[in-house]
Amino acid sequence: MNSQKLGTLAGQAIDFAPQTKVERDQPAPEAPKQPRWTHIHAPDVRASVSGTAWRGMRRELKVFLGNYNALFGTAILLLVALSALLAPLLFPGDPLEMVARPFLWPGQNPAYPLGTDSMGRNVLAGIVHGARISLTVGLAATALGLTVGIAIGAVAGYFGGLIDDILVKFIEIFQTIPSFVLLVVLVAIAQPTTATVTIAIAIVSWPTVARLTRAEFRAIREKDYVQAARSLGFGHARIIFREILPNALPPLIVTSSVMVASAILMESALSFMGLGDPNRVSWGSMIGAGRDVIRTAWYLTALPGLAIVFTVLSLNLIGDGLNDALNPRFSEDR
Amino acid sequence: MSAYRRIGRTISRTIIQAVPTMLGIVILNFFLLKLAPGDAADVMAAESGSATVETMAALRERFGLDNPILVQLANYLNNLAHFSLGFSPRYGMPVADLIGQRLPGTLVLMLAALAIAIAVGLLLGSLMAAFSGRLPDRIISVVSLLFYSIPGFWIGLMLILLFSVKLGWLPSGGDSTIGSRLTGFPALLDRARYMVLPATSLALFYLAIYARLTRASMLEVKSQDFVRTARAKGVSPFVLTTRHVLRNALIPITTMAGMHFGGMLGGAVVVETVYSWPGLGRLAFEAVMARDFSVLLGILLLSSFLVIVANAAVDLLQAWIDPRIGASR
Asked: Inter-chain contact A301–B157, Cβ cutoff 8 Å?
């Protein structure tokens, strides 16, 4: 995130491995060169190299674990994930069913700690079940977007030339169209279900990944170890997946956590507008329903919104932490 | 190279790059329109309430919907070349006119939000850079991350709750007092009161981005030689920050602001539905609810076009701010 913080983080890691000591003493630009060399896969050095690679990962883990913000984010996310997993056990039955008198305020009835909404539905059950849909859509859309984005970006960046020109134009078209407007159009055309919402979010989010992957591939393509792999006669697929991709991963990992966050935001905005799956309860649709009674029962709007804020915040904190841990140079450049 | 030639070169390069992109978007738009359930004949038949197979066929023939798809595409392109986006049966007026009515509202809202985001973002970012690593930096950085995580529609509702429902300071929706006969400055003030909340809700997300970006690029510029020279020369810290550091840190921020134009348009869709702001976003929402796809895709096309224009404007702005940019390519 910043050079000062990095300095202290490197200082904390000093006791664990001799190589980090070197890193601390030298100015920042020298530091990231170390992990660059850990991915050489020439047959005779592989055994000796794998140990270094492991130590490198451990250093990054230490940096991540030394970052309280990131730990806080991880804790929140684990809590959300846990409640999503346990939702059917904690609140069996349909959360869309009426269970009590409508408009019970939080704390009014101990059986419904967060109250009930205008239809007498349990708000806490809705929030816990809503975590399921938010996380499912967020993760699935990100996985899909990453796959497509990496595939297209890798092909464009690795091969270059005409293929690159065409694919870049294609990416540009999708980046030019305002993504949320496109998302609304896609979901409106394809009828809102969880699957179509997921696919639509993936369609609007892959171009970022493709751009990033392409840039990384173009930079790494020229490195000596890739030339070495090429001269050893490795095929394109092997060079792409075994030599370049592992080295292009750090910025992609950072991006993916931010992508999950923005996918959750997009899903909630869609279901707030009434474009979510009507048969599933989601945080956005709860806010949309609470909106009409905001003057009398504002907790119905506030509570699911807080759930979104905390989940998205946790993912962004994790993204920041990952960025500091995996990409010291990258984060400093920005 | 003179400034004019540099800018002229940037313009021609931008236009050459924009044409294929625009064409691609138009074609994509056309196929999305084809994918949408029901064509214009279905819509008109549904509106009229009675239709036979024969009248449907006649309608299709009249609109050219029975032609091969490529001929239809050519017709669509031909219509676009005449600035015709089709006709909306729901509103009973051409889509282009409908969009033209709503566009100014959205543009004003977006410009206000952008102005707030950049002004406050620059301020917070400068503060963070000035106190980097110390307590103010950490607090602002957490706050900006929080802004970055809040959904625009939710903060919009919360602002309505606080400032309209509880405090009663600001109106909760619309764009001006209905039936008021204010003119001149009071009318402007009235509109501004209606704009504060929606513009703020739209701005918060981008404010966070600009604050972080300003901080990063100011820290980078600060470490450069000319800043040290200026400091050695005895320039006061305030002048150093504003004239030397901030000015150079502005380049990445203008780039990002141009890139965010599309995102902001999307954000405006949601914020406008919250505040019943009469703009494109509200129109898009109504079109979705009415399943009026010709309007929806007209908005998509026009907003993509606006993004291209905005990007070109940013290119020009940068060629003007920084002489190195236009000349090097």
From this structure: yes
